[in-house]
TrEMBL record:
Record domain AMP-dependent synthetase/ligase: where: 37-396
Domain named AMP-binding enzyme C-terminal: residues: 447-521
This protein's name: (2,3-dihydroxybenzoyl)adenylate synthase
Residue ranges of the TM segments: none
Pfam families membership: AMP-binding (PF00501), AMP-binding_C (PF13193)
Keyword presence, Transcription: no
Source domain of life: Bacteria
Pathway where it operates: Siderophore biosynthesis
Keyword entries, A-Z: Ligase
Organism: Erwinia plantamica
């Protein structure tokens, strides 16, 4: 059985194969190509895995899951933090042809429900250490709501649970890897989203493997690379740009950190002689602050490359990186939907500090459209439009949204406003999509607005971004209430609904009415201006 998704047209697929982008190899090849290597692949805390151990652990788990009836074409909902099991599980599922959604550890009931209802998982893998799974209050009804759910496997399991650790240790027995075909869905990536329900992005083996190999080439990762993964491991950026998958492909070492704080990361960098890592801009600010406080960057002596992406990096902050951290900066402008842009390691300072790089593939087609969808003259700012060998052709089961997100020629409109320099470098100028980028964490305004509208005291609501010196943006909810509502009440209400913490409005303003545009939509631009004015006062 295969999972249905929006395929690339045949002529494109043929071209991508001809050019060697699509190799018709499963993503499991990233690991199996090093199956006999004794080199260390992964370190998490005191735990250390060689490539051979990682390969065997994931095969044992795949075999154990197969014995429990999991098979190619099934889907899984997985929620694990930055722990070794994240990769063991991912490779095991790929070996079985089971396509997972890897939810972030910060996700709660709302997010997991939204993913589960879309994929109807046969398998759930989660962690008892997560608040949602500390009791069975969420698990029990979940099993009832999703009859498709046949197996629940838990990390930090209790006596009656099916234990992830036990399955990984189970004697392997007969097992022949049977991944899904390379041009079928390997797994689902999470969209930052701008709509009411979080959207899923089907990624095939072919397209994802190409994006990884090409990233490895651009970033010069190899067996000497020692990469610190301090962002959520499931996120597209630390997974594939080149991320942990890129490091595994190249035969290097991945060291996991639970979060990107300087307190945690600096000692890890020193201890493991880390050469490369990936951060979002707010983490860079905190690292620079820590260096100033500690009076030295000595712990970071081995670090050669710092990638920064996920949100806008100011030129001022960019320029401080080589000067104060003492390593090379690479800007990364990517998206879980596909397209990834990098500044080149050999670029001059202007390009590295002031642009978001160039599309990594020669066959990435990128152009800038006006509001009507017509091409704009070179250098002008407008909508980023793209298609290519690793950019998806449609969100999972979302025909209506896809009709808006793509043009007639299959170009995806990311909702970013960009300009392109004469030499082909992209500069992100802003955003058209109704999203808040909270230091790299994306919040779909509509999702939170819909939930708030269910509150008995709320008549109208608009969630907008407001500037923040550390995070870049925070969220503010403008509320028209039937009665006065307090911020604590709203936040508690959202928490009780089971919304991830980063999506809770940072500020709440109660107003008598919301300003409207001439066509009668809420004028969010005006609300943002009001906020900016109130912040400078
Ligand atoms: C401004 N905005 C940026 C940047 C992403 C590599 C790196 C990042 C992501 C990612 C990723 C930006 N400057 N440098 O998947 O593989 C904003 C844009 C974009 C959205 C995508 C990768 N880098 N952005 O951030 O799917 O608005 O992917 O459309 O989470 O983040 O978000 P996401």
């Amino acid at each position: 059985m295969t999972i249905s998704y929006s395929r690339w047209p045949d002529d494109f697929a043929a071209r991508y194969r001809e050019k060697g982008y699509w190799l018709d190899l499963p993503l499991t090849d990233i690991l199996t190509r090093h199956a006999n290597s004794a080199a260390t692949a992964l370190i998490e805390g005191d735990r250390k895995y060689s490539y051979q151990q990682l390969e065997r652990a994931s095969t044992r788990l795949a075999a154990a899951l197969q014995r429990r009836g999991l098979k190619c074409g099934d889907t899984a909902l997985v929620q694990l933090g930055n722990v070794a099991e994240f990769y063991i599980v991912l490779f095991a599922l790929l070996k079985l042809g089971v396509a997972p959604v890897n939810a972030l550890f910060s996700h709660q009931r709302q997010e997991l429900d939204a993913y589960a209802s879309q994929i109807e998982p046969a398998l759930l893998i989660a962690d008892r250490q997560h608040a949602l799974f500390a009791t069975d209050d969420y698990l029990q009804p979940l099993r009832q709501r999703y009859p498709s759910l046949r197996e629940v496997v838990l990390r930090n399991a209790r006596e009656d649970d099916t234990s992830l650790a036990a399955l990984i240790d189970e004697a392997q027995g007969e097992f022949v890897a049977a991944p899904s075909a390379a041009d079928e869905v390997a797994f689902f990536q999470l969209s930052g989203g701008s709509t009411g329900t979080p959207k899923l992005i089907p990624r095939t083996h072919n397209d994802y493997y190409y994006s990884i190999r090409r990233s490895v080439e651009v970033c010069c990762f190899n067996e000497k690379t020692r990469y610190l993964c301090a962002l959520p491991a499931a996120h597209n950026y630390p997974l594939s740009s080149p991320g942990a998958f890129g490091v595994f492909y190249g035969g290097g070492l991945v060291v996991l950190a639970g979060d990107p704080s300087a307190n945690l990361c600096f000692p890890l960098i020193e201890k493991h002689q880390i050469t490369a890592t990936a951060l979002v801009p707010p983490a860079v600010s905190l690292w620079l602050q820590a260096i100033q406080e500690w009076g030295s960057n000595r712990a970071l002596g081995s670090l050669q490359l710092l990638q920064v992406g996920g949100a806008r990096l100011s030129e001022a902050l960019a320029a401080r990186i080589p000067a104060e951290i003492g390593c090379r900066l690479q800007q990364v402008f990517g998206m879980a939907e596909g397209l990834v842009n990098y500044t080149q390691l050999t670029d001059d300072e202007w390009h590295i500090f002031s642009t978001q790089g160039t599309p990594m593939s020669p066959d990435d087609e990128v152009w800038v459209a006006d509001e009507q969808g017509n091409p704009l003259p070179q250098g002008e700012t407008g909508r980023l439009m793209t298609r290519g060998p690793y950019t998806f052709r449609g969100y999972y089961r979302s025909p209506e949204h896809n009709a808006q997100a793509f043009d007639a020629n299959g170009f995806y409109c990311s909702g970013d406003l960009v300009s392109i320099t004469p030499d082909g470098y992209i500069c992100v100028q802003g955003r058209e999509k109704d999203q808040i980028n909270r230091g790299g964490e994306k919040i779909a305004a509509e999702e939170i607005e819909n939930l708030l509208l269910r509150h008995e005291a709320i008549l109208h609501v608009a969630l907008v971004s407001m500037e923040d010196s550390l995070l870049g943006e925070k969220s503010c909810a403008f509320i028209v209430g039937k009665r006065p509502v307090r911020a604590v009440e709203i936040r508690r209400y959202l928490r009780e609904l089971g919304v991830a913490d980063y999506k809770l409005p940072d500020r709440i303003e109660t107003v008598d009415e919301l300003p409207l545009t001439p066509v009668g939509k809420v004028d969010k631009k005006r609300l943002r201006q009001q906020l900016a004015a109130s912040q400078t006062n």
